[in-house]
Description:
This protein is an alpha/beta fold. It has helices at about 15-25, 45-55, 65-75, 95-100, 120-125, 145-150, 160-170, 190-195, 195-210, 215-225; strands at about 1-10, 35-40, 55-60, 80-85, 90, 105-115, 140-145, 175-185.
Amino acid sequence: MKALSVIIPFLDSATTLQSYLPQILNRISEPALAEIILVDASESSDVKRICEDLHVQYIFCKEKGRAIQMNTGAAYARGKWLFFLHIDSIPPDSYDRLIISQDSAESGCFQLKFDWDHWFLEFFAWFTRFHWTVARGGDQGLFVRRDTFIDLKGFKKIPIMEDVDMCRRLMKRRSFTILQQKIVTSARKYRKQGVYRLQLIFTWITILYWFGADADHLKKFYDKKI
């Protein structure tokens, strides 16, 4: 059994994978302790080849959706800790050690930093240091003990906000830790869509979610606007 399984849901280009995956691998301090699992929903031969070249476990998932893909990866994982990571979020150096050394926690995440020094993004990222459910999101990475993940029956199979839902359930157990180290996530969507416009859309979706809006309707709204 491994100490840590890094599970990456993927539905992107081979170019994106080549840009980010080596960085994720290079920040592991002890490769023997960890395994990297990429769960691909596009069944790309190029993506599979890149994974094989980098000795990353490749899994094809017939159904698209981060919740389904992450649950699929967790089913294959051998780690005591599961670390769910977006492909364009680069964790800090020695993140494997930082996670598996959390003896008193069941779950947690890193603080957030964008790869674009824009004051508005820095403002929102600053709030990720606080123990607030509303400040959680998949871009921060989410680590959870395997037995805790099984106890919660994994991610709910919803098309959007699955990471926020999981964080909310984990934080209710009162053993969720926020590490001071920062994970650097890509601001590529903000560059393409516009910082203020995109953050307004995300904020509105979050508000609707907290007031009980149906996840399928929120996904349709997201797809329409972005």
